[in-house]
Request: fold
Amino acid sequence: MSSKLAIFVGNDRGGYVGFPLWLGLSVAVLDQLTKLLVVSYGEVGWSITVLPGLFNLVHVRNYGAAWGIFSEHTWLLGVVSLVAYVLLVVFFRNLCDGQRFLRIVYGCVSGGIVGNMLDRFFRGSVVDFLDFHWGPHHFPAFNVADISITCGVILLFLHTLFGFGKHKEPISAEEAGEL
Reply:
């Protein structure tokens, strides 16, 4: 790995937090921009068929967590999101445990948390707009933040169970970003 990339991604001893910071920020910004487009297009309830029988763009609001659970506690979910984000930031070094791969997980999850948390605090609900279905069977609508959190959790699962992203052999000083 080049030293410039190693400085950005970080080395295995803690390193620089630039990569997860920029990944998380990029996810949160993309999430908020797509939601702004959805909200500016029209009121809650509109739907555009993109792939008949498979995919629609919609404008729905989720006042709860996944699949609408705890919908009567939107403010509490916002606080829980904030606490989860603060804990991720505080324990970031220990969570990554010297693994560059986990910085990707951290960036995905933290960016998704921030994207949905901003909705809860400033809109009172989370804007969802991606609606996949198979005939009459609809998966709950979701957004960019949800995709990012899900990808982060899947990567963490693969990392934990199967060692995906772990170094099989010790890395050289050059790969670690030392000069």
About this structure: The chain is about 55% helix and 15% strand. Residues 1-9 have pLDDT under 50 and may be disordered. The chain has one domain: 40-176. Strands lie at 47-51, 55-62, 126-134, 137-138.
